[in-house]
Amino acid sequence: MSKPSFAIVGCGTLGAALGRLLFQKGYPVAGVASRSMESAKRLGNILETENIGTTPHNITKNADIVFITTSDSAIEEVCKAIALARGFKDGAVVLHCSGAASSKILDSARSFGAYAGSMHPLQSFAGARPGVNLFEGILVSVEGDAPALDIARTIVADLGANHARVKADAKALYHAAAVVASNYLVTLLDMAFSLNKAAGISAEESVLGLFPLIQGTLGNIKTQGIPDALTGPIARGDVTTIARHIADMQEKAPALLTLYKSLGRATVDVALAKGSLTQAGADELIRLLEA
Ligand SMILES: NC(=O)c1ccc[n+]([C@@H]2O[C@H](COP(=O)([O-])OP(=O)(O)OC[C@H]3O[C@@H](n4cnc5c(N)ncnc54)[C@H](OP(=O)(O)O)[C@@H]3O)[C@@H](O)[C@H]2O)c1
Q: Which of 83, 114, 177, 232 is the most buried (most CB within 10 A)?
């Protein structure tokens, strides 16, 4: 059976990665649109299409599937503009890839005879990496109208990923979890690098030293789960070690102290759940971390 054609609206990081992979998998390209002609041209060249532009409804009108991969805040407006200009063909499937929003923001497409859905890849696409399929083996959460779900599930399988259904009203919390696990991990490591810098350890040395530690921790979380994977001074109830950290940070890295203390406070609860910390030890740590 021939594959449905697709259009991309929003030729940024994800739109380009998705477009490139669908093209490689043999999905016919209906066209690409973006806010700037430069982005549209760049992706149009890769996807070998001349149907490019900055007016999405001109580009999408013959597409079987329309991906709206703009920034989250623009999806609803962009969809509405295409719908009002009759830019979705009857029975087209319109998908966005936002983690936090449901397919409700595509209601305008529904009112014009299209089917709507959301398809969120749990992956971090940080820039162009041609030749790498970042969808391979990942989880993509899907939600929406039945025909949109059918298409989304087929695409997810074609890209080598697995799908999971997510409830429309659970998307914001589900996405907050992903932000904590991925984006806040970057922030956390930025803090670790800054502490090392204050200790006179270079960024290169930080990578060498911290990466095996991080990978070991991830391995422990995978095999032993949480809270058992927790080790370190809070799990052991080493109050003097934490007091030493705080004293030195007060002097050499005061800007990082608030975050250090609140993460430490949350870690006390994990240690209590593990059962490796006594209530008396926890109380002492809490006094120190909340001071
Ligand atoms: N990056 C990730 O790791 C990731 C992961 C999962 C899901 N997502 C989702 O994927 C979507 C895109 O994210 P991204 O990271 O690829 O963002 P991005 O790199 O900033 O790309 C967004 C693109 O949308 C275009 N755009 C913005 N407003 C527009 C408008 N009014 N009309 C047409 N095009 C418009 C911009 O075009 P110009 O370049 O022409 O200005 C830009 O290239 C978001 O919904 C995001 O939640 C991203």
A: 114
